[in-house]
């Protein structure tokens, strides 16, 4: 494989020295970019865009043409796995993702297959291979998946949910069924991420978007325990390099110590956490990724720069920080403001290194 021209993202995840703090943005390929909207209309709809490796590669690379980002992230969706399990994913305008079939009992769970990454999710693996080829070593490529708990909520609710009524009812009323579902999802996600690593992903992130909706006890038992299974089952060396794993639980600031004990290289933080406090809590165990409030990007460039400076100062001197937003960039953001954000990170962070 081609040597990396810019590996500061991977170095930071492993707490190795870097010249400046690396930066990327969750949802950096997305609706805030006019070129993304053009590609999406060419594809026809969101899933057609995901399922076309050439177009998925095109939109993955678009933000890198605009900004000096330190990583590319595969363009895909967390719900590809439940779709490959036969639930029939579709998108309603203004409604978000929906499934034709829902999972509501043990019989439904027993009927679910564990997808084969190359056979059932081959379009994702082909996208990874295409992106790696086109990146040609410019920056590392991040692969990703949803966490078992997050995927389970969509499968049980049939789509997005504000209160997770059905998922939590199953969790408390029929924990055996929920554990069976989560176990199957942990196996599926492990093989899916390993497939991405073999296809060329150089780091992977597990998005636990809804772990923060759980009580402390339920989080440990129904979310973190299954992310632990995934971390334990992942390929950690490939192409002569360590493949770092990032765990990101939105709303998970209360549980950083137990997340850091999983063996993941890094934790993603949302904006409700002070990164300096988080660093003092986890010590040298893990790198930290984050954690500017995405809404700061609606402010003027000088306000964005001030907030970047504040977060860098809070993390302080030394290695192990990947700068990111605390969640995905939103569609209404001015692309010039995203540019000001990325430029500020590189400019203001040099004094914290070396």
TrEMBL record:
InterPro entries the UniProt entry points to: UROD/MetE-like_sf, Uroporphyrinogen_deCO2ase_HemE, Uroporphyrinogen_deCOase
Entry keywords, A to Z: Cytoplasm, Decarboxylase, Lyase, Porphyrin biosynthesis
Segment forming the signal sequence: none
Main location as per UniProt: cytoplasm
Catalytic activity annotation: uroporphyrinogen III + 4 H(+) = coproporphyrinogen III + 4 CO2
A Gene Ontology BP annotation from the UniProt entry: protoporphyrinogen IX biosynthetic process from glutamate
Any one GO molecular function term: uroporphyrinogen decarboxylase activity
UniProt site positions, description: Transition state stabilizer: 77
Positions bound to substrate: 27-31, 77, 154, 209, 327
GO cellular component, one term: cytosol
Compartments it resides in: Cytoplasm
Role summary: Catalyzes the decarboxylation of four acetate groups of uroporphyrinogen-III to yield coproporphyrinogen-III.
Protein name from the UniProt record: Uroporphyrinogen decarboxylase
Gene: hemE
